[in-house]
Amino acid sequence: MEERTVTVIIPTYKPDEKFRELMNRLAKQTVRPEQIWIINTEEAYFHPEDTACVPNVSVIHIKKEEFDHGGTRDMAARMADTELLVFMTMDAVPADGYLLEHLIRPFQNPQVAAAYARQLPGKDGNILETYTRNFNYGPESCIKTKEDLDRLGIKTFFCSNVCAAYRRSTYLELGGFEKHTIFNEDMIFAGKLIQAGKAIAYCKDARVYHSHNYSGIQQFRRNFDLGVSQADHPEIFGMAKSETEGIRMVKQTAARLAGTGRLLTLWRFLWQSGCKWMGYRLGKGYRRLPRGIIMRCTMNPSYWRQKLPEQAEK
Questions:
Q1: Would you call 115 helix, strand, or coil by DSSP?
Q2: Which of 248, 241, 209, 222 is nearest to 129 (CA)?
Q3: Helix, strand, coil % (nearest 5) of the chain?
Q4: Is the torsion defined by CA of 13, 16, 22, 23 positive or negative?
Q5: pLDDT bucket at 1, cuts 50 / 70 / 90
Q6: The whole model's pTM is what?
Q7: Surface-to-core class of residue 171, CB atoms within 10 Å of its CB (0-12 exposed, 13-18 middle, 19+ buried)
Q8: Ramachandran angles phi, psi of 265, nearest 5°
Q9: Residue 141: phi, psi to the nearest 5?
Q10: 264-291: pLDDT as tens digits
């Protein structure tokens, strides 16, 4: 495989045991990063010894109010000078030592401008997380282009910065991640790639453990922010309906739970799905909501303090 230089970029906030394990496993990769940038929110919560096992680590500390999903990652991307940029979250733990090797392999195809890893449920992932991960991250790799929009819909530009790589030259050419976005900076940029005629690769052999056992209320808030991001970027999300894919996942998962007699889990799943749908719909129509309601619905109140600073929070 042709050698390619790689920078790994990881935003952190109150890093924990999963971050330490992530660092340990990055140190054992068959492809070694040229540089690892840690963009840490609030220096008081960061322990330098957590990164001692990995060479070429640089840490930049920012304040909580300075963090932005797209802007913070973009800042690090513009400091890197490698061919490829790999973004990870601090709770994405490589499944083996071949993560980076598999993740960068699709870039041998000059049309590929982004690639993302398969997410497996962690040890603490419940059955609903397992079904969701299996639905969104299947057992077959693929390369997606604009020609797949009619067939795949929104999945065409599905991409996750939990673990994703980008060709830096194309990233800069298209302006990088949105600088002030509540959520979905990865899919917004992936949509731009598709519109520009580039390709996105899904790498089933590049695997990370990553899952969240969200409650119904947490799902509501997360999907509220998802709806906001889609409402703010109709130029991207207008290419395909996201509701269709969500309905397909609900039907498929509900059928599996009912078929195995997991009726209590089925009830919990339907409750969480209802929370997701309600949060998403409210987020899509957030411009009609008072600021007080928005602040109660969002998972990212600091975003709104910057976006709507003229109104006093109630």
A1: strand
A2: 209
A3: 50, 20, 30
A4: positive
A5: low
A6: 0.93
A7: buried
A8: -65, -35
A9: -70, 160
A10: 989 999 999 999 999 999 999 999 999 9
